[in-house]
Give the backbone structure.
Amino acid sequence: MEIITSIKPLLIISVSLIAVLLIAASRKYPNLRESWTILAAITKFSLVVSMLPLILKGKVIEYFLISVLPGLDIKFRVDAFGIFFALTSSFLWIINSFYSIGYMRALKEHAQTRFYICFAIALSATMGIAFSANLFTLFVFYEMLTLCTYPLVIHKETPEAIKGGKRYLTYLLGTSIGFQLFAIFLTYNAAGTLEFSNNGILAGNGSALLLTIIFILFIAGIGKGALMPFHSWLPAAMVAPTPVSALLHAVAVVKAGVFTIIKIVLFVFGVDLASQLGLGHGLAYFASFTIIASSIMALRQDNLKLRLAYSTISQLSYIILGVALLSPDAITGGIMHIIIHAFGKITLFFTAGAIYVATHKTKISELNGIGKQMPFTMTAFTIASLSMIGIPPAAGFISKWYLVLGSIEAHQMPIVIVIMASTILNACYFFNSICSIL
Amino acid sequence: MIEIFLGKYNYWIYITLMMIGFYAMIAKQNLIKKVIGMNIFQTSVFLFYISIAKVKGGTAPIVWEEAILYDNPLPHVLILTAIVVSVSTTAVALALIIRIYKAYGSIEEDKILEMSK
Amino acid sequence: MNISQHFPVFVIIIPLISAVIIPLVGRIRRIYGWYVSIAATFSSLLLSISLLRTVFEKGRISYWLGNWEPPWGIEYVVDYLSGFVLVVISFITFIITLYSMKSVGKEIPEDKITSFYSIYMFFVAGLLGMIITGDIFNLYVFIEISSLAGYALIAVGRKRDALIASYNYLILGTIAATFILLGIGYLYMVTGTLNMADLRERLPLLYDSTVVRTAFAFFSVGLSIKIALFPLHIWLPNAYTHAPSVVGALQAATATKVGIYVMIRIMFTVFKPRFILEVVPVSQMFLYLSAVAIIAGSVLAIGQKDIRRMLAYSSIGQIGYIVFGIALANKLSIIGSLIHILNHALMKGGLFLVVGSIVYKTGITNIDDLKGLGKKMPFSMAAFTIGAFSMVGVPLTVGFVSKWYLALGALQAGKWVFVLVILISSLLSAIYFGRVINNIYFKDDGGGHTTKIDDAPAGMLVPTLTLASCCIIFGIAAFIPVYITRFAAEMLLGG
């Protein structure tokens, strides 16, 4: 594998940080301010795309920034998986930016400058996560993402929003400091390094018990993955404006969570170690439980955004499931599901936001007949729902197909049943929504 | 037994004085009495220092023809410094008490605490 | 005769002489007192830096006061440890002096400003003396100089609550200092020497003696009061809360740190690590005490309404961190502790300076009333946020560095539980700082979004922002303090 040193990863991260300064400077001129956001989003996307040819040739781009302490480096490495995530997020940021401008102006929201600033920082953090070359860099950007999305979640500053924000922070900071950081300490103490490696770094560096504890701490510590029981921040964060929900669910936050889980399973533990210790299967059953439980919860929600939130929780667990099965097909399916879910969910949230802007209604039971007033919106909603359920020819089908193949490959018939069952549940709540809206 | 009490009487005196002072500093409500306790407390330590400087049969540490065996002068000097410190502490404490009295009209700790609530 | 040979004594002499000069020049114009203080602290800083450099070039500096050879004369010692702490303390005092003028003018009666600066210089001289001296009785004298000046500084403000806080501090502080004096007496009784290096050589033969152990017990209790180690912390919250803002910042950032430095000196230089680890395993006791302090300080901080009191309780927890690393006594944990001395001075100093600015501008100290300040005082609040993040231990701030080393040290010693203590206290501090930050930025003060920027004057902002940016600079370029403290830790554990 050829390694190329390039400053591009750093540039991609700093593009939106520079935009922050420009946005802050032009806070008095809304049009100029928004154009900075758009400009930054497009620049970021094109920079990511410009790295694509090299990565597709199987090369890896690295950039070493600074060594904070011996063993703690801020270092970036762009590999196929990272650039895949970065491409998705940076592309969706462009779309989301246009949508935010419309949404925020239509509702005449306050503190829009803060909104755009935090958004831009969140995107920097996401790119940082995508390109991180070691656990420390990942942790830094992970925390940065938590902190800079907090103002977005409580944007409305109502008591309800503050309460939701409190839960958001408690879960995300609590798990990341309480468990993830602990796991990082233990990893460093055991392995003497935090660098991601294709074969994992923990193999042979500690007893099975210690490694299992580290694994559990990591999984519990990545609250952004929204595995039960650390999922309740996601519905709580639904108080945020719709573009923020889209950011949380599609562009950045939860995706960063599953991305981190995948990175840790594959590059800290390594496929061999994880299957040897039976960690993968443990995680797979855990994810299965989350899939079923949250699908059932989704069925019971009347608030459209809440229903989507629970749907996200179950869809995220598909991704985790895919990686946990540790078979090539399942991992492919899981990774593909990142992008497929991102596109599907962002569409669903945009339509939910559009309905809110047009009618100021949030409950599904109140939405009877909206389909006739907003035909285009509802068409988009239906298509995205089909993808979420996994009905061909929608994209969701492909990832589910791979997941099923992967679980058969791993001889895990119960998982196949879980996927089937949850597909039925998905179908129930999405058809239910579509029917009541039409 | 008697040996322990009488042979080391200097220590017993300093410990007793120290405890008296300590008690006054902690238990007394009156701020002046606390300062008196503090002085007793510090003085007990000075006595301790001076007593350990005594050499059996030694004279005062003055250069003089017959002085073959003399007391260790260093602790005396140290205690001179410590006395200066003690006096300054007392001065600061008394100055504070004057200001407390001006501000609260009392030097009883319980009353002051009631007032500052 | 090279002048630079006398630098160790100049570090002390300059603030001492300034303390005497200030009342004289203050008669001409009050502001001159401030100028002299700045000049004095700045030259102490420069001298400290040059001393630290000399230590790295030539090794330990031993200065014989009055050219009397130790162990008879008083020796001043600059090594990796004292050089590092000297630089930290003189830097912080310089920054706080820069900051002080406006704030002091507002919070202290005008006729007392000159004497304030005079006492301030005595305080600084006492602290620097505690750091540099190699003679244990001289140490006591400097402890008392800084303590007496400290009592006076706390009481100098307009608030009457400060008087009683200062008085209680004086009583407890005197008990502590007298205990230390007694400990010195016992050591002198059995060894006949007061020089620290000499004591180090002579004491190992006497480690089994009851007298030596009693001496150590007196030192432990006395110093624990001085550094406000839980549960001997009761003087601290009131003293920090009611003192004038500048004094609060100064006490929080420097006084307890130097106390801890003295504790390290007693434990590792006068006694050898073997004594506290094996002969009399007090390190275990300190380990558990500090763990309790870490948690208790954070828990108590959550319950506070006054922001200064909250910071004071948080200091108690942070002192726990430093003692924790010392008590673990392995290389990583000691590096963690020493870095935390620097870090806590930067963070807590910065936070108290921001509080000083808030008091200067608005007079508010209640956390619930801080609403909307994020718009009114954006720069000060940015500094506060950085300090708060650092206290929580967010990576790329200094707070993370020391926690990293302390946790690794705990893991290396096989004590997992204490890693949990560190993490839990980080979470607790996230809670109490989160509450403040929430109030500052995300709660409406009723003024809407038209609030005009009305931040503290530049004279106060620049020092505050300097400390805040140091929190980030040393969080990213952490190898600089780590490089110095590694030498210090090796020196402490050697032999």
Q: What stands out?
A: Chain A is about 75% helix and 5% strand.
